[in-house]
Amino acid sequence: MPIFKYSTMPFQNDFATYEFNDGILHVRYKHIVLEHNAALCIVRDRLEIQKGLGMPVLCDIRAVREITKSARSYFSFEGSTLLTAVAFVVGPPVSKSLSSYYLHTNPHAVPSKIFVDIDTAVKFLKTFIQD
User: Fold this and answer.
1) Domain span at 90
2) Residue 63 within any structural domain of the chain
3) Residue partners of 69: CB distance under 8 A and separation at least 6
4) Entry pTM
5) Do 119 and 60 form a contact (C-beta atoms < 8 A)?
6) Phi-psi region of 22 (alpha: psi -120 to 50; beta: other; left: phi over 0)
7) Which residues lie closer than 8 Å to 93 by C-beta, 6 or more apart?
8) Is residue 131 in a domain?
9) CA 108 to chain centroid
10) Domain containing residue 107: CATH number
11) How far is the CA of 85 from the CAs of 13, 28, 31, 67, 94, in angstroms?
């Protein structure tokens, strides 16, 4: 059984909350504006939580209204470490347009899709859970 099942969750920092649910790491972003330093903190804490294990991640970005170019770039490159797939849960209209722009302008090392509801996002991510 994977180590992360025994983690004391949820965990949070100034920018996001992290919680495991059925083999998927759920990251709920708190801030309306994400800058480069926020991206560094979010990824650093996610990697610490994952403890070297690759896994699918659900990113609930409904609260995000803006993300800087440097933060987008960091998320798409260094921020992809140990991800097997990413599902973005968005809310209309701003976070949906931000995530669409992000997916179309930044290269992705892992399968990534946009969803408007968590249940559909989880179904997508369950196909990427590793034993």
Assistant:
1) 3-126
2) yes
3) none
4) 0.82
5) no
6) left
7) none
8) no
9) 13
10) 3.30.750.24
11) 22, 16, 23, 21, 23
With 0-12 CB in 10 A as exposed, 13-18 as middle and 19+ as buried, what is 23? middle
Tens-level pLDDT at each residue, the chain (131 residues): 344 444 546 899 999 999 998 899 999 999 789 999 999 999 999 999 999 999 999 999 999 888 899 998 898 888 889 999 999 998 876 555 565 555 555 555 789 898 999 999 999 999 999 76
Whole-Å CA distances, 10 to 7, 16, 47, 107, 110: 9, 10, 15, 30, 25
In the block, tokens 């994400």 appear at 34
Residue 15 lies in a domain: yes
As for how many domains the chain has, the answer is 1
d(CA 86, CA 27): 10
Query: CA-to-CA distance for 29 and 62, rounded, in angstroms?
Result: 8
Token pair recorded at residue 2: 């994977």
